[in-house]
Amino acid sequence: MTSPVAGVPASFVIPDILSSWPFQRVDNPALALVQSSHRKWFQSLKTNAKYQKTFEGCNAPLLCSIAYPFAPASHVRIGADLLLLEFLIDDIADHLSPGEASRFAGVIRDVLKNPGTKRPDGEDTIGAIVQDFWLRASSEASHTFIWKLRKELIGYVDAICQEGVDRDSGQARDLDSYMQLRKTAIGVLPAISVCLHNIDIPRDVLLDPKILELETLAGRMAFLTNDMTSYNVEQARGDDLLNSVALLIRTEKMPVQDAFDAVADKFRIYTHEFLAIMRTLPLDSDPSLKAYVHCMGYWVTAAHEWAFEVGRYRLNSAARSGGRVFLLPKKIKDEA
């Protein structure tokens, strides 16, 4: 962080972390089509204002057009709808007590386990939204997709609820336990399952330690870039308990810029580990596995690129290319 000058806010630079990453950005040409159908689907759900605010702020089709650059429009659409669900779940769970979050998660688990059951009157709208998504996404999908997405979505919901418990109690995790939780709570593992929609990969292959480690590394890289791009708005509203940049500032007494640089260094270590493992896999002889592994890589790219093009984190293209980002003033949480 630069030394404060009278009247000038402190600032930081988001490090360049993708310069040696081979999965460079490619935009799926189906973006406009997906944006239109995605919006129509959301509007058909007749949600309330809090859901509408999340929808307008996340632009899930843009994120998914970068994450699935070579996928057909139908798959990008499934990904966009899934990402919106994750944003809704995350944003709503942030404001729930542990007991409320547990009941909220129970609704989602019940939908995933009993998708054909009519939802009870008076249930939170999220139940009907998840059910509508699941019935459409699982139609004509591979067995691998159904098994994997259900498993990862339940894991995601559980992790989000645990984050809520941490926030409510004020518990500050150490870096290791934080990273274990966040690799699931960032929501990348359900998202990369979309790549399996029309692919059947044997379960023992997906459970191979190397594939599981690649998933872990992709999840870690995704949440580290998210921590860097979201830090400013989170520190402004006092909601940075679960952010690795803020964690290093608190526990290691690092200046802001040093914390950003340390997180970027950790990201680069994971980049090296991911690529090293990837090179040991027989991807050229297994197109399905290659598609899945490359999907992980493009998701890391998407998580970073998207953050500079939506209003959610109050960034711009200059910040992506090394421009200074000025710290936002502290605000009451509901105002941020």
UniProtKB/TrEMBL annotation:
GO-annotated molecular function: metal ion binding; terpene synthase activity
Obligatory cofactor(s): Mg(2+)
Gene3D superfamilies in the cross-refs: Farnesyl Diphosphate Synthase
Cited Pfam families: Terpene_syn_C_2
Keywords noted in UniProt: Lyase, Magnesium, Metal-binding
InterPro entries: Isoprenoid_synthase_dom_sf, Terpene_cyclase-like_2
Annotated EC: 4.2.3.-
Name the UniProt record assigns to this protein: Terpene synthase
